[in-house]
Amino acid sequence: NAPTSHLIQDTPASAALLNRARAVTPGGVNSPVRAFRAVGGTPRFIAEAKGPWLTDVDGNRYVDLICSWGPMILGHAHPEVMAAVQEAATHGFSFGTPSENEVLLAEEIVRRVAPVEQVRLVSSGTEATMSALRLARGATGRSKVVKFAGCYHGHVDPLLAAAGSGVATFALPDSAGVPASSAHETIVLPYNDVAALEAAFVEHGDQIACVITEASPGNMGVVPPAAGFTDALRRVTREHGALLISDEVMTGFRCSAAGWYGLEGEPEGGAPDLFTFGKVMGGGFPAAAFGGSADLMSRLAPEGPVYQAGTLSGNPVATAAGLATLRGCTPEVYDRLDAVAHTVADAASEALAAAGVSHTVQWAGSMFSVFVRDGAVRDYEDAKAQDHAAYGRFFHEMLRRGVHLPPSSYEAWFVSASHDDDAVAHVLDALPHAATAASA
Ligand code: PLP
């Protein structure tokens, strides 16, 4: 596992694949952030991943600080997850009938997150939030949804809307193809702003089906809820008969064994009504879920009138990977995540300070991000006010030195329990050079 000893200069095989990919796939990628548009340059096509290391098609090695945007909490190709996947695959790939792994995975989730009595399995975080939203609308008979600027819940039409600052702004679609009628059902509010929340409910309270929030946002960088904000979400939704959806797709089973809920504890006034999960619970395979009380979940087909389905939902290989991953998330794993995250974040902060680069590190459990700006980041407007160009220089110097950060300054840095001392040392070696590049 020796780190790449030389600087990575050229990546001709990645460049060639990107050219071919562009001919047959928009932008050459199957998810936009992978195209490196925010930082420039050529995305690396990865051929192999093991533990904390990625190897690209040119044979360059990188310490991975993306971890597939969260799922790879145990590291890549973890032996126990690999064995579970191989074992499951020998029994067939997809049945289109119920199977035991689905029950085991559901039981594992329900056991961890106390307010969740039942879950429905789906294949992506987007499906989870889309379905939770439909259930909330079906259960309340209302159509409006409140979301927060800077929170990402997948590419669900009404949840793609994000507005500029301002209270209770009726959102414009953030993407072509989202009908105005859909965006008009969405009220976008600034995060961490209780007054804006209360004002929106005073005006539209009887039409609001739900508030959806990232349990602790990680998609504008890591911006944890201010003290009392989650309580306020619970109080205001209760007062107006709206549901509260806590999106734990990113934080679930990462911030703690029970996700952000396990870390922050139950809000004053009771738990959120619905939770969404993804990423870690699929162990790198397409598995996600939404869940809540048995009473609420009973509104779903076949028991109730809210329709939701999926050919590959509860796929036996994906659920085997998810189950093995969750079972592998021992207290020691969470300790290692904390230790690695703090070592890397502290070193990044030290290096940036030494290079005179203003920055702020924010945390949600072992999830953290580094903002290239001074002062606390409380909402999306704060997150936007960063030196994005400096992050781009920082990113590319890390990449040249064999460390793959998220290619955007709005993302959390993800570590895994497989980030051993070797991998961490490699990151620490690169950081001062990258900080110097950022300061240029
Ligand atoms: N919700 C949150 C909080 C997310 O971070 C993401 C993805 O990053 C999603 C939902 C969508 O999940 P997926 O990409 O699996 O559709």
From TrEMBL:
**GO molecular function ontology, one term from the record:** glutamate-1-semialdehyde 2,1-aminomutase activity
What sections of the protein cross the membrane?
none
Q: Which InterPro entries match?
A: 4pyrrol_synth_GluAld_NH2Trfase, Aminotrans_3, Aminotrans_3_PPA_site, PyrdxlP-dep_Trfase, PyrdxlP-dep_Trfase_major, PyrdxlP-dep_Trfase_small
| Main location as per UniProt | cytoplasm
Q: Which UniProt keywords apply?
A: Cytoplasm, Isomerase, Porphyrin biosynthesis, Pyridoxal phosphate
Domain of life of the native organism: Bacteria
Q: What is its EC number?
A: 5.4.3.8
The reaction(s) catalysed by this protein are:
(S)-4-amino-5-oxopentanoate = 5-aminolevulinate
What GO biological process term is on the record, naming one?
protoporphyrinogen IX biosynthetic process
Family of the protein in this entry: Belongs to the class-III pyridoxal-phosphate-dependent aminotransferase family. HemL subfamily.
Subunit structure of this chain's protein = Homodimer.
| Protein name per Swiss-Prot or TrEMBL | Glutamate-1-semialdehyde 2,1-aminomutase
Q: Which gene encodes it?
A: hemL
